[in-house]
Amino acid sequence: MNAPLGLGSQGLVEPASAQNAASRRTPNPQPALPTLETQSTPRAPGDGRLLWLDANSTEVITPGQLAERLPRGTLLVANDAATLPAAFWVRTAQGEFLELRLTSLPEAIPDGGSRLRVVALGKGSFRDQTEARGPVPKLRPGARLWLCPPHSGADESSQLVPLAVPALRLQQQSGRLLTLTASGAAPALLAALYSYGVPVQYSYTQRAYRLGEVQNAFAGRPWAVEPASAGRHLTACALRSLRDAGHEVTLLTHAAGLSSTGDPELDAQLPFPERYDVPRATAFAVNRAVAQGRLVLAVGTSTTRALESVVVGSKRLIAGGRPRLRSGSGMTELLLSESNPPRIVSGLLTGIHEAGTSHRMLTRAFASDARLQEAWLVAAQAGLLLHEFGDGMLILPGAR
Amino acid sequence: MSLGKRSVLITGASRGLGRALAVNLASAGHRVLLLARQAEALEAAVSAAKAAALASGLGGSAQPIVADIGGFAPGRREQEHFAPGRREQERHGAARVAGLAQALIGPIDTLIHNASALGVTPLQNLTEVSIESVEQVYRVNVLGPLALTQALVGNFVLRGRGLVVGVSSDAAVEAYAGWGAYGSSKAAFDQLLRILAAELSGTGVDVLSVDPGEMDTDMHQAALPDADRSTLQRPEQVAARIAGLLSSPLRVPSGTRLTAQALADLDLEAA
Q1: Which residues pair with A60 in a beta bridge?
Q2: Long-range contacts from A262-270, C-beta under 8 angstroms, 24+ separation
Q3: Does B159 lie at the interface with A, CB-CB under 8 angstroms?
């Protein structure tokens, strides 16, 4: 049964309590929001469906219908960051195994070698809740760690392979957050990470992911620690169709970071600073689209944050007061929300997430709570799927 | 872009034509990644390419990626679930190579599929050849390159530029007894590249197939041990002609299969 449009918040539970609706009674008993299933196994790019929200409608479409449905001359901006095999195992001098998760690509340091900033997790595997993983030992500064093949965490003998992998040394530890250095040339470390690393994944997933499964069809430089998953809805064919229909598709690269560390104190600091690179051609295309009143549609929250991070400040607005982008690369910690809304991005293609998540904070900058609740009902009716490998949501102007 | 520095990934780059291409392109100032299965032979090729880059002073570079193309396409016995020890199968898959390549030198714009498997030698007629050995030839010559192309070409399309080159053979066109596995695999890959070119028409991504003709390489020796090597082309000569294709705007339409003669003619024209 379809929830009639315009139902608004009448008869619906407040978003913040949606998650607990099943487990407690509210003073005024109201129907709980329906649940949506999670798509925890990666599907092929383009296989999902999209929930379309604009001024007039809330409906389900396929990615193939985007080219014809989007307003004429829409500019899409996509994050082409590939997903790193950012999770890898090391052995300590005491013979303990730790899983380390990169917070970003290792960076070369001036005297040769590389620096890695990682979150450490103890005994267990991705099948365990991150918070429930074993403790991380306090290591001595200068302590050595040895990269090893993937280790399930079970009591089995180490499978160290005598490859020439660089030694890792601890520089600094703050609880689960470690800064390590690796000696030797950066390429050797990268090759070792690509030999032994696996994609970061969480306990709701059913099986180990292969690196190829967690990439977008147009992925390029491996900057992302977790998949920039809104891009999964665009295949190479889709890029082609969009351009053939007169839309523009441009790119940037943004280092989408870890979404969870298992340590509430660390989690409160997320997102860590994330690197971005907005090319000149993209900044030019966005500025031109804005000047011509065309829709600027960001593919993913990572894209949105990167674009908004290079908006030129108010003192430097051109005559007419329109915000502009300036191309460039740097680090961003920008958080967008209803109270700090985007200034350039006017539409968003993203995933479907529950109320009460940090993701919802950004989507509320694009759509009202009422529309998002209504969208949720339509999504449930259509059997849309949640999370990074699920279906998507397209929020266009007018949904606010 | 075609006049500027390219970022090139060459498979089968430790010997023969692949190595010669790597040396030539590094010397011409391009950033080159050499991919091959055996680390030692690869290191030697990388050293040669680096030395050439240094000598020319044009800013070229060379780095190794150790991987087995034959392992890129999923096998019949592919494990869905991770098990320790099974990691070998996936360790150097196409996505890993594409990711490592771009971690090393940034966005790739040129992919040269040069690595080839000949099959079991001495070469066997189709009436006798083992199907398993034919399957392996197809993995290395067709399926693996397709997987690697898929892992890279989406970014080419997004960026609106790129070149995919396949190294072919006249065994793909002529009917030589004993060359059934290799010849048919090269014919399959030629057609695959032609169709890819059609699919990518208008995207700014070009696709070419090049038949280099007979060269004095280990592969040739393995196939035809009694050949008179003095009649064979030097791989360095052929590499220079192919590299010449890359250093100018493409002078042939995307989807062209260049025969050895056509390649030589183009080279003469450019001179």
Answers
A1: A51
A2: A262/A119, A262/A121, A262/A129, A262/A130, A262/A131, A262/A132, A262/A133, A262/A176, A263/A119, A263/A131, A263/A175, A263/A176, A264/A131, A265/A175, A266/A119, A266/A175, A266/A176, A266/A177, A270/A358
A3: yes
Give pLDDT tens digits for A136-149. Answer: 989 999 999 998 88
Sorted by sequence, the CB contacts under 8 Å of residue A134 that are 6+ apart come out as A121, A122, A123, A124, A153
Q: With 70 as the cut, is the pLDDT of residue A3 above it?
A: no
Question: A180: helix, coil or strand?
Answer: strand
Residue, of A198 and A317, whose pLDDT is higher = A198
State the pLDDT at residue B234.
Answer: 92
On whether any CB of chain A is under 8 Å from the CB of B88, the answer is no
Tell me if residue A1 falls in helix, strand or coil.
coil
Predicted TM-score of the model (pTM):
0.91
A154: its two tokens: 């079970």
Task: List % helix, strand, coil for chain A (3-state, nearest 5).
Answer: 25, 20, 55
CA distance B271 to B268: 5
pLDDT greater than 90 at residue B108: yes
Nearest of A164, A135, A160 to residue A150 by alpha carbon? A160
pLDDT in tens, B37-89: 988 999 999 999 999 999 999 999 999 999 999 988 876 544 333 333 344 44
Backbone angles phi, psi at A238, to 5 degrees: -65, -40
What is the share, in percent, of chain B residues with pLDDT greater than 70? 92
Question: Which residues in chain B have Cβ-Cβ distances shorter than 8 Å to A198?
Answer: 82
Most confident of A147-161, A176-190, A215-229: A215-229
CA atoms within 13 A on the CB side of A344: 31
Interchain contact, B98 vs A150, CB within 8 Å: no
Question: Which of B74, B256, B242, B248 lies closest to B147, judged by CA?
Answer: B74
Edge-first strand listing for the sheet containing B110-113: B61-66, B31-36, B7-11, B110-113, B162-167, B205-210, B257-258
**B100 and chain A in contact, CB less than 8 A:** yes
What's the longest Cα–Cα distance across chain B?
57
Contact A362, A355 (CB under 8 A): no
Enter the ipTM.
0.92
pLDDT greater than 60 at residue A246:
yes
DSSP A117-158: EEEEE-SS-TTS-GGGSPPPPPPPTT-EEEEES---SSS---
Inspect the interface and report whether the beta carbons of A207 and B100 lie closer than 8 Å.
no
Closest residue of B to A224, CA-based? B99
CA distance linking residue A214 with residue A392, whole number of Å:
16
Retrieve residue A59's tokens: 């409906």
List the one residue out of B3, B21, B1 whose CA is nearest residue B11: B21
- Tell me if A363 sits within 8 A of A372, measured CB to CB: yes
Average pLDDT over residues A223-227: 97
**Is A150's pLDDT higher than 70?**
yes
Question: With b meaning 16 or more CB within 10 Å and e meaning fewer, what string describes B167-181?
Answer: bbbbbbeeeeebbbb
Identity of the amino acid at B175:
A
Substitution target from A75, A114, A116, A194 for chain B, most B beta carbons within 10 A? A194
* CA atoms in the 13 A half-sphere facing the CB of A119: 25
B26 closest CA partner among B58, B4, B2: B58
